[in-house]
Amino acid sequence: MSVNAQAQKKLFGFSPLSDTIAVEKKGFLLLPLLYYTPDTRWAFGAAGVYYFKIEPKYEHERMTRVSYVQFLADYTQNNQLDTWGVWNIFTRNENYLFKGELRYRDFPDRFYGIGNATTKDQAEKYAYNLVSVKNLALKRISPSVFVGMDYHFEYEYNFSYTEGGMLEQGTIAGYKGGIGSAIGFVGLQDSRDNAINAHSGRLVEISSYLYTKALGSTFSFFNLNGIHQQYWALKKNHILAMQNKVRFSFGEVPFLDMSTAGGDDIIRGYPKNRFRDHHFLGTQLEYRYPLFWRFGMVNFVGVGDVFNTVSDIKMQTLKYSIGSGLRFVVNPAERLNIRFDYAWGREGGYFYFSVAEAF
Questions:
Q1: Type and span of the H or E element at 31
Q2: Rounded CA separation 310/308 (Å)
Q3: Tell me: the pLDDT tens digits for 70-129?
Q4: Of the candidates 34, 33, 27, 35, the residue with the CA atom closest to the CA atom of residue 10
Q5: Sequence-separated (6 or more) residues with CB below 8 Å from residue 236
Q6: Alpha carbon 208 to chain centroid, angstroms
Q7: Phi and psi (nearest 5°) for 103?
């Protein structure tokens, strides 16, 4: 096969099935983007992922896990424009880890109120623009443990509302946008064998952010976040994956920065912004297994909710999620999948079509 033909195969993600992560150390995947979520309906655009591994300089050093830089631009059936870039980069010998995000959104959306017992008929339309920057630098202090600092800046502006709605009344924090500027402290343990689609290991990340007027923030509030992801290989390519997520926010929290229940990563089966409040607790299990050739299957179940006080968590409002999904491997070397999920919750079912695993 010619060099040009090999490059084309990598470009579109169809590397030979015999490839392994140890063999293919870098590549570029470019795909036309087509996906569907309850928040956006159908969306189209383009996505690109450049992945690579840093070669060891000395014999005693190890090959790093895969790093990636991802770009995406899409426009949705709901007239939403979203452009962003994210990166997860290990330096040589994994001495440092750099993570971050740049994002711009022009985003019409729906607001249902605050709390875990709102109804769908409370929905009102609003729209806003967002510019967001996140930049995280972490130092390795043991083989899989990193600690460091993060800075987060976001600017929400150009709001428009449903006439006579809850937001237009001006009683909800952040109804006309503003600046969020925060310093964060982050610690994580990351022993996953692959950051895109892990088969073994765990990710534990704890972060705290202080939004303060001393840094130019419009609002003063504090949030504490925790993520735990664990992966077990039951047998070859049969993976049991678990994700737990918590988020607590205190102070004058703008509604766009409140915790939400739902989305395409945890508690699938609800639009991402269907439920909002200060805090969130959620957990889910996922079983991933092959079918034939590059096709695979996933079954998942999850439960969680948003709340203001612990007494708000009740069985009659607790959000559950159950569903299945089809997978197609577009790059076996780096385990990059296209996924199609259908999830069922309290308010019915939704399907999701996108690139990469939910977690």
A1: strand 26-37
A2: 7
A3: 899 999 999 999 999 999 999 988 899 999 999 999 999 999 999 999 999 899 999 999
A4: 27
A5: none
A6: 17
A7: -150, 145
Q: Mapping DSSP to helix (H, G, I), strand (E, B) and coil, where does residue 311 land? A: helix
Cα separation, 231 vs 229, whole angstroms: 7
- Please calculate the CA angle 99-103-106 and round it to the nearest 5 degrees: 160
Task: Decide if 207 contacts 174 (C-beta within 8 A).
Answer: no
Q: Give the pLDDT of residue 17.
A: 28
pLDDT tens digits, 234-265: 999 999 999 999 999 999 999 999 999 988 88
All structural domains of the chain: 3-355 (2.40.160.50)
Per-residue model confidence (pLDDT) at position 254: 96
Contacts of 132 (CB under 8 A, 6+ apart): 101, 102, 103, 104, 105, 152, 153, 154, 155
**Global confidence as pTM:** 0.82
Provide the 8-state DSSP code for 63: P
The pLDDT-based confidence of 317 (bands split at 50, 70, 90) is: very high
Q: What per-residue string of b and e applies to 21-46 under the rule 16 or more CB within 10 Å gives b? A: beebbebebebebbbbbbbbeebebe
